[in-house]
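Archive maintenance. Older records in this collection stored only the sequence; we are now back-filling the structure field for every entry so that each record is complete. The fields below show one back-filled record exactly as it appears after the update. Entries are processed alphabetically, and Mitochondrial glycoprotein family protein is next in the queue.

ARCHIVE ENTRY
Title: Mitochondrial glycoprotein family protein
Organism field: Carya illinoinensis
Length field: 232
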Amino acid sequence: MARLIRPFFRKTLSSSSSSGALLICRLQPLPQEPHLKTIGNSLFQTQHRTYITEMRKSAFEANILRLLRNEIQYELERSPPTQPVAKFDSFTVDSRPGEQWIRLKRKMGDEDIKVEVTMFDGAIPTAKSGGGTGEEVQLHITLIVNISKCKDVDVLEITCSAWPDSIEINRLFIRRGDKMPAQPYVGPEFKELDDELQDSLYKFLEARVLLPLVRLWFSSPTISIDHVACMY
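Back-filled structure field:
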């Protein structure tokens, strides 16, 4: 009987030892592959750098806005804004504080003239005056001129580019009153028109005091610091 018990006991111990070793192996963590560890570290570093970059960009933009507000506040305190201009040459003015444009109106005979003028919306480099070295810039504004007769529903609309000493007509077309079609016919390019017709249209604009208006606008702009302040 003892001989039978010993082999059975050895077999049981051997089986238990094998099961225990297998259980220990299962409980032990698997070794991490070196390349997976490298990828994880690289991904973390990239995300960290992106976060820092975004934080710096946000701080930079906030600092710029703060400087602009401080500068505007300084200008307002040093030169309090004047009352909006109601008359501009022979035009009445709707100054529209905080907007990027103003509207001017006048009456000439039986014609109603309305001009929408943008703030300075462009510039080109020019040779420095006086023969000096370097470059200066020439500012640009856009004008949209509407001319209509008192008893006529048709409106002649002319789009112009304006510089300190000149006006360049870009396009013109006729529309029906205040209603604008979804796809209005804007006519041919102005430069494609007959030279005589081009000259007549320029004289037509000049007779309505538009060129002096532009000169006055560039030399004494009505957009004061309070218009700029409303934009921030």
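Update note: The CA atoms of residues 128 and 135 lie 5 Å apart. Residues 34-78 form the longest helix (45 residues).
Entry marked complete.
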